[in-house]
Amino acid sequence: MHNFLIPRIAPRLLRAPVLALAFAIGACSSDEAVAPENHTPASAKLFVNDVDMTSDLVLPAGAVTTVEVRFYAADGDEITGISDTHYAGLAFTPAALATGVGQVDAHFFIDVTAQGSAGTGTVSVGYGHDAAADELTFGPFPVTVP
Predict the structure, then answer these.
(1) Are 26 and 42 in the same domain?
(2) Most C-beta atoms within 10 A of its C-beta, which of 57, 76, 99, 116?
(3) 94 is in which domain, residue-wise?
(4) 7 and 59 in one domain?
(5) How far is Cα 128 from Cα 133, in angstroms, rounded to an integer?
(6) What is the pTM of this model?
(7) Predicted pLDDT of residue 3
(8) Whole-Å CA distances, 68 to 26, 42, 92, 107, 135
């Protein structure tokens, strides 16, 4: 009778550890698993004080302006919930037009210092999984330093 119970009890005893293991494997994740299902952007926009400045980013001469980069999916929806694991960067042309330094605790906010004199140029937006933000590029977008 003892041998008769083993086939019936063993699967029940193993069920809990197997479920726990499956849950642990499913729960363990890289930062990517926490991100929204589709977090690869199709476009980017530039904002200053919550105002869309993508069509003409204006940077006062000699001043520091905080520029926020927002990324959008192909359907036009803003991609949110990825700023802890992804980075944005700005590259200006000509390079002397302005320089940008990403904020340490807010990867999509960049403090931009414009040149001291008036000028025009462009800016390209970089996107990536590290501070180099060099996996995707958007733009160029027009920049004016009045």
Answers:
(1) no
(2) 57
(3) 38-145
(4) no
(5) 4
(6) 0.74
(7) 53
(8) 34, 17, 15, 9, 18
